[in-house]
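Posted in: Protein Modeling Q&A

I'm a second-year student putting together a small comparison for a lab meeting, and my supervisor asked me to include a predicted structure for 23S rRNA (Uracil1939-C5)-methyltransferase. I've never done this before, so apologies if this is the wrong subforum. The sequence is pasted below exactly as I got it from our records. If anyone can share the structure token output, I'd also love a short note on what stands out.
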Amino acid sequence: MNKQYSVEIQSMVYEGGGFSRLPDGKAVFVPYVMPGEQVTIQIREDKKGFALADLVSVDRLHPQRIQPRCAHFGICGGCHYQHIPYELQVAYKKDILIEQLQRIGGIESPVIEAVIPSSNEWAYRNTVQFQVSSKGKLCYAKARDNFPFAVRECHLPMPALAQLWPQLTFEPESFIGRLDLRQNQNGDVLLEMNGNQSEIPELESESSVSIVSLAGDDQVVLAGDGYLIAEVLGRPFLISAGSFFQTNYSGAEALINQVLALVREYKPQRLLDVYSGVGLFSAFLAGEVDELLAVESSPAACRDFVVNLDEFDTVSLAEGLAEKILPELDFSADVVLVDPPRSGLRPQAREAILNQGARAIIYVSCNPATLARDVRAILEAGYRLEKTILVDMFPQTYHMETVALFLI
Ligand SMILES: C[S@@+](CC[C@H](N)C(=O)[O-])C[C@H]1O[C@@H](n2cnc3c(N)ncnc32)[C@H](O)[C@@H]1O
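Accepted answer (user: helix_wrangler)
Welcome! Here is the predicted structure, written out as tokens:
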């Protein structure tokens, strides 16, 4: 059996755990703890510079520790923070963002100008993803090893999804792989089955349910329209199967308001929206500028973008990988907005964005670690970090969104 230790948790770190040190000074990371707690841990993986530990017991509790709501807490890879009251979750996320900007970003004393919590602590997710096991059961991935486990409860999906998913069962060996469910604010649901599927699950639902089978970019609509219309800040957005959309509608509105306020402050004439998705930001920014160019690689999102921004003749869209398109681009923007996936900016894309020489770069990030890495490069190119805003769209989890404004 691996060795056990008693340690005091010093701080929270990105990706869900707490940080402490072993008696020999080695850093150790422990899940499901809070700073100040005295805990018994068992080493799970002893690496060269740090160790990963399992939590054996909490021997001195944080006074604000609460009972997790979900039976899967501690097993499921979805939620890491259910034992923490929501206000403290947000405070810890702020500390984590500061730590990442300091340690990885190289900023001595980062300032977070605003922290915007989610308006819902539960039932906020408009999208849920399951793996379908070979026995036909809906599964999430375990926190420890990503291994699938059958889900019995989840408190994060919005009501129509929460009503629908427990009814879904599939024949054994149905080879669906991944199943994505999304809903709009009216409770209409889009069910996306990945893999060549023709079997339609039997459902009793109060909502209208569209079912799409997806294999790569090929789609077959098995029932309903094959898309959703969601409303954000009073604007309708077409979202097709396979297109990215922000997971929390009110969080998306908060993000747009922040980005819009920054753009209005800097009154650009030409704006570049890189990683534009279905045009969520572009749709609100197009009316603020003379010309807008968006870049997006997903064909489904590009098709939606064209519909969602149809009314603007000052908007164009370049379909393809940012790292391929940007270095060749003949468009000089005075403000560049980027909202990359979790991996952050690819080096070629980052270099091309920095070569634009824009007055301002607005960076919307869903991963503070890759944001901090890119911050370092952006600062080295001569920009300064003017404003950092944390928008929490993911209560109960360690995830966070950040809006960062860089000026030259
Ligand atoms: C975090 S989402 C943001 C989308 C949009 N800004 C929004 O808020 O709805 C990132 C988007 O980047 C796209 N994407 C991923 N990698 C890309 C790449 N290398 N080049 C261009 N777009 C990419 C994805 O398809 C996705 O739509």
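A couple of things worth pointing out for your meeting: The chain has three domains: 4-65, 94-120+247-407, 127-232. The mean pLDDT is 95.
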